Amino acid sequence: MNSNIQKIKELALINKVPIIQDASLEVINSIISKRQVEKILEIGTAVGYSSLCFSTNNCVKRIDTFERNQDMYNQAIQNINNCQMSEVIHVHFGDALEVDISNFSHDYDLLFIDAAKAQSRRFFELYSPLLKQDGIIIVDNILFHGVKESDENISKNLRGLIKKINLFVEWLKQNEEFETIFFEGGDGLAISKRKC
Ligand SMILES: C[S@@+](CC[C@H](N)C(=O)[O-])C[C@H]1O[C@@H](n2cnc3c(N)ncnc32)[C@H](O)[C@@H]1O
Q: Is the CB of 168 under 6 A from ligand 1?
């Protein structure tokens, strides 16, 4: 990892910005490299760390990424400019469930969903049509830090969130269009592709 990206990671961890875990990043980077992924669509930029890591793969030509938090967006733009990657990584400001995506092309190789965890199904349904026929969808944090719905001493809100993530996982398992494998390292990834 280059030193600029390493510094962005360290600062994100100090500031408690939730960024992708190393084990998940390793899996995604190996998929990017193996499939020679050129175009990525990401929901949830934060400070641009995951996008910058993906962009270090030589095959990656363009990343579009959405962020709704103004402060995160500003930091991402600054980090991406500092790493001289603004020609590759395009950060779009706004709520990914509300922005107009009618002008987006339908040729993404990889969709990475890493935003509001209760909304993963809506992101999946809204953005999967922008994927190439053989494209991949990866959803992060499906294990949600190991917290279980049955755990005692968790707040009602957290229990509600875990329930929504579990419902999303069940929905994925029964999805008629996509088949999904689950990676349990890191914070858990769901990796989906269209059924043949
Ligand atoms: C887990 S962080 C993303 C981390 C980033 N992918 C990384 O690994 O470096 C989730 C981000 O998604 C953003 N977010 C949540 N819901 C969103 C939405 N509906 N539209 C756009 N951004 C959203 C949050 O503001 C937050 O910055």
A: no
Q: What is the pLDDT of residue 61?
A: 98
* Cβ of residue 116 lying under 6 Å from some atom of ligand 1: yes
State how beta strands 178-183 and 189-194 pair.
antiparallel
* CA 46 – CA 187 distance, rounded (Å): 17
pLDDT digits (tens, 9 = 90+) for 104-137: 999 999 999 999 999 999 999 999 999 999 999 9
- pTM of this prediction exceeds 0.85: yes
Distance CA 114, CA 134 (A): 21
Q: Which domains does the chain have, with CATH numbers?
A: 3-194 (3.40.50.150)
Ligand 1 mutation target, pool 56, 114, 189, most atoms within 8 A of CB: 114
CB of 79 closer than 8 Å to CB of 48: yes
Query: Candidates 22, 43, 83: which one to mutate for ligand 1, based on the most atoms within 8 Å of Cβ?
Result: 43
